[in-house]
Amino acid sequence: MAGSDQSRRLAGIALVAVSAAVFSSAGIFTRSVTAAAWTVIFWRGLAAAGFTLGWLALRGQLAKELRSFDRRSLLIAAIGAAGSAAFIPAFKLSSVANVALLYAAAPFAAAGLAWLVLRELPGRRVLLASAASLAGVAVILQGALTGGSLKGDLLALFMTLMMAGIMTAYRKWPDVAAALPNAVSSLLLLPVAAVCAPVMAVPQGEMPVLILFGLVFAVASVTLCEGARRLPAAETALLSALETPLAPLLAFLILAERPSLQTVAGGAVIFAAVLWSQRPARKAAEPTACP
User: What is the pTM for the complete model shown?
Assistant: First the structure.
């Protein structure tokens, strides 16, 4: 039994780590094509939804998730669609490092929302880490004022708040399925994207990249979902934070994108807050018995 639990945990660690590594490539895909943001949203969403629905059908779960899809699922899908609508333009208007580091503040935004909506009071460590994370966000946004990427950073911040909303919704309704609402969120944006941009006018050679982006996004979502089932929530959150340093590193290696000093400073504060907030609490020492 112990060996089985260890194998399950190792599989969970591998799945969540793969998810974080794959998610970190989002900025590379977005910045490597010249297609308009809504065109990227359309084709990425179409490929991601197709892959996710196919995966559910292959596992025999599609009919079950369709039967359980209700207003709560639709709300989560709508929040996800709003976040995705800001996600791609954020990369187009700001640096990969800024978007990735602002997104790292999502767990703390979720803690604040859970307090407001669910009256779930966060612990002292989360409160302190949230305050530090907020300071880091302020440093990054201050740099955007001088660097001209404020609009992109605000979109990234909006996307972060939407992700915090999804985290809070699943905290309130843990029985709601994750895969189908994720696919529906992509499908909801297809008609909007078709109205906002000539989605068929994809620059030559970029269609395979957009389709691959959708498949990669779906794989990242599926591996995160499967990994989270095998690990405690705190460990999942900590492993997911691997995306934060990986995304700027990939942008530097592949796109030669150098983050600003404010981005490095603010990102270091946010990332340190994430790591510190996930450290296991130290147990109180046992009282020493008198001889």
Answer: 0.79
